Amino acid sequence: VGSAALKSNHQQRLLETIRRQFDRMRFDLTAFISIEGHTSPSGSAARNQKISEQRARAVKAFLVAGGLSGSQIDAVGAGASSPLVPNTTAKNLARNRRVVICIAQLT
Question: Which H helix or E strand runs over 46?
Fold first, then answer.
């Protein structure tokens, strides 16, 4: 809660997954990654927006450090505006604190 740190147990898996997807797309200059950080509604809207942006930037920084081009990665924060599940339980609140990564090949 309230953290933008990328957990170490997810780092290698994330990098391998992204690289595998780029390999499948025959990575070129039309490939693009969109990263969205999300939060639960715990805390103020301003704080949640800031945390969601930090989460997205942390993932982008990790991917760039792993060798991907930062110019092909967009990182944005969505705050608590797009929950996956209703914020009715602690488990659901945790599920809504996430980062979503979309990979596309632009034509």
Answer: helix 45-65
